[in-house]
Amino acid sequence: MIQNSAFGETIIELNEIDSTNNYAMRLINEGMAEHGLVIKADFQTHGKGQHGNVWIAEESKNLLCSVILDTRALEIEEQFLLNCLTCVSITEILMQQYNIPNVSIKWPNDIYAGKNKIAGILIENNIRGSIWTNAVIGIGLNVNQSTFSYLNNATSMKNELQKEVKIIQVLKQLLKKMSFNINTFNREPEYFLVLYNNYLLQVGRQIQFMRKYELKAGLLKGVNKNGAIEIEEKQKVRNYQHKEIELLIQ
After folding, report:
1. Domains of the chain
2. In what order do the strands lie in the sheet with 206-211?
3. CA atoms 168, 91, 78, 183: torsion sign
């Protein structure tokens, strides 16, 4: 069971840092971290995406933050379920609080509005022996940035709403939502896998994807609790891990 104290009771606000996840990990390694601590930055010089990718964001335009969790009471096998909780929390904030249409989760950890990416998540874990001691949930949410010269499939809350949004307000709403969802997670963690699959981009549809430079097609069935995507190809369901394949947005 994760402690259910509210996230964000302590927020460290930084003008510039290499990455909020790196800063959080340094605090953990130095024994200075506390459960629910949030690190927020206006700008990251080396923002991190999944599998070493770089997250680039304009200064003071977006929500760049990391949340530290004490996960000692959780099983190592529940790591992807924590990713589900985070993805669902962001998706529901965008839909329910801001009425942004067509919000979905692109496997494994991106949030899309329509066919454009609006947020990304990177969870890094501290594991000592067989104990999952801490998780650092890194969140990059495009809020008030309006142009993305380096990406042709990115959007922001401002672009979707046609108005600027207060970043600190978005952060407070998200932390409140995550704190609330943690209580449900403690009782029924796999509930968030169900929600994750409900919000999954292209679920139940014929999709195209690349595997080893080969274009393939199949029916997207969903994602299992280990984080593998399930695709039905020629009446046989196959499981793929992230980076084994690249989904194509249609």
Report:
1. 11-198 (3.30.930.10), 206-248 (2.30.30)
2. 236-240, 229-233, 214-223, 206-211, 246-248
3. positive
In our burial notation (b when 16+ CB lie closer than 10 A, e otherwise), range 88-108 reads: bbbbbbbbeeeebeebbbbbb
Mean pLDDT check: name the lowest of 52-61, 63-72, 115-124, 178-187.
52-61
Strand order in the sheet with 63-70: 11-17, 38-44, 63-70, 131-141, 116-128, 110-113, 103-106
pLDDT in tens, 142-198: 999 999 876 678 999 999 999 999 999 999 999 999 999 999 999 999 999 999 999
Cα 38 to Cα 229: distance, rounded to the nearest angstrom:
30
How many angstroms from the chain centroid is the CA of residue 24?
16
For residue 189, cis peptide bond before it (omega within 30 degrees of 0): no
Q: Among candidates 214, 211, 204, which has minimal Cα distance to 240?
A: 211
Task: List residues bridging with 105 in a β-sheet.
Answer: 111, 200
